[in-house]
Write a structure and sequence with these properties.
Radius of gyration: 17 Å
Strand order of the largest sheet: 1-2-5-8-11
Helix content: 10-25%
CATH architecture of the largest domain: 3 Solenoid
Number of domains: 2
Structural class: alpha/beta
Shape: globular
């Protein structure tokens, strides 16, 4: 009973700082303090860990807030489909430095990740990549080109098609 009360209290406290849609999985008080008091990701309108680097240009379903609770980086215009899981250490970079002036960024090349994808540990997705639904990206992969058809496993540096997925694999 006491545990349920504490959970509800944390949600009510979180609602002072965030839209309730982002609080469906609860709230880490440690992350709240890091974000709102210490200033880690202070301009981000959803709760995220201090070890997560992100920009407000990221679009995702609030049910998938868990993707921002571990060390990872999301920079620039990134769209993440419903049900996608992103492992720790992943880097998803729609921004790139200008080769002529490294203090400047080039214009974003948006990244689109489809629904029900899985991005493996320490995978890197580079600007302009589109991953279709049900794409699995292997650990430590560097994704430099798009796989818009989805339903596949990709891995390596640079990432290449390992195999396709069928309905049997997905169900």
């Amino acid at each position: 009973m006491f545990r349920g009360f504490i959970g509800k209290l944390k949600i009510e406290l979180g609602a002072l700082f965030y839209d309730r849609q982002y609080l469906t999985h609860g709230l880490s008080l440690k992350n709240l303090v890091a974000q709102k008091v210490l200033g880690y990701n202070k301009d981000i309108p959803w709760p995220c860990a201090p070890t997560c680097t992100t920009s407000a240009d990221v679009k995702f379903d609030p049910k998938d807030i868990h993707n921002f609770w571990r060390p990872s980086a999301f920079l620039g215009k990134v769209t993440i489909g419903l049900g996608t899981w992103i492992s720790g250490g992943a880097g998803i970079f729609a921004k790139n430095r200008n080769g002529s002036d490294l203090s400047q960024y080039c214009e974003d090349e948006p990244i689109i990740i489809g629904e029900y994808c899985w991005i493996g540990w320490n995978a890197v997705i580079l600007p302009g990549v589109i991953l279709g639904d049900h794409t699995i990206v292997g650990a430590n992969a560097v994704v430099t080109k798009s796989f818009p058809e989805g339903y596949c496993v990709i891995a390596g540096n640079p990432a290449k098609l390992i195999r396709g997925l069928t309905d049997e694999h997905i169900n």
